[in-house]
Amino acid sequence: MTAASPPAPKGQITGRHVLIGVVLFFALVIAVDAVFMVLAYRTFSGQVASNPYEAGLAFNRTLAQRQREAALGWTAAVETRDGQAVIVDVRDAAGRPLDHLSLTGTLERPATETGRQVLAFTPMGGGRYQAPARLDGAWDLRAVARTPKDVFELEARLVSR
Fold first, then answer.
1. Are 98 and 74 in contact (CB under 8 A)?
2. For the chain, which has fewer Cβ within 10 Å, the N-terminal or C-terminal residue?
3. 109 vs 106, 112, 118, CA distance in Å?
4. For the residues 17-41, what does the mean pLDDT come to?
């Protein structure tokens, strides 16, 4: 037989007290998290935009614009030159270069709007357009090529080292 340990003096913290305290602490944290999750789920309206109707109309216009662009059959290739310039080559459905376009664009960082650059493209001939830019790291290019009757939008991720 083993002898039972003597009872702890009154007011002394034992392993049992620590175990109960840790279990109660985590039970309280889990209970509070559960309450917050239930409240968040019950109060979520399902709307992601504050004006969903207007956002839906804008999306429908975007879809219509993408269909018009697909019907044009234009393509664009983007390249960078030594981290100092962005060059866009625009071709029609037959692969012929498209000159006499008005081409504008912006460069933004993928994660933030800090350092946003507005690009002013100048024609180089042969369907190629160049804009000076400061390219270090990752950038998202959004450009719009226009003629008096057609609009073509392009997006590209540019990464320079």
1. yes
2. N
3. 10, 5, 12
4. 96
